[in-house]
Design brief:
Length: 103
C-alpha cells in the first residue's frame, strides 16, 4: 500500500521520537523505514526488552500480534514482524491525525 508523503513523514517523526533515533528522519520510503525500525527493534530485543515493551504499549500495538511475533524462531524474524506492526500502527495514527487536522 502506498502512503502519501505527509503521512509517511508524520509516522516517521513519531517513530524517531519513540526510538530516539535520528537516522529515521532521512527515510525516503516505507521499505527503508521498515528496515531501520527492524534494526532498532532487534537492538532492543537483544539489549533492553523492557524498553521495547514500553514502546509497544505507548504505540498501542495489538498485544496478541506481538505475542505471535515473539514465537517466531529467530530474533531477526521477530524484529522484522514487530517492526511491521509498529509501522502499521503509526501509519494509522498519522493518517487519522492528517484527516482531523485537515478538517
Amino acid at each position: 500500500m502506498e502512503y502519501a508523503a505527509v503521512i509517511l513523514s508524520g509516522a516517521t517523526q513519531q517513530l524517531q521520537k519513540l526510538f530516539n533515533a535520528d537516522d529515521l528522519q532521512q527515510t525516503q520510503s516505507l521499505a527503508e523505514l521498515q528496515q531501520k525500525v527492524a534494526r532498532a527493534v532487534l537492538h532492543l530485543l537483544q539489549t533492553d526488552l523492557n524498553s521495547l515493551l514500553n514502546i509497544l504499549y505507548r504505540i498501542d500495538v495489538d498485544e496478541r500480534q506481538v505475542k505471535q511475533a515473539m514465537l517466531l524462531p529467530s530474533e531477526p524474524e521477530m524484529a522484522d514482524c514487530i517492526a511491521r506492526l509498529i509501522i502499521k500502527r503509526e501509519l494509522q495514527k498519522a493518517q487519522t491525525r492528517f484527516i482531523y487536522r485537515s478538517n
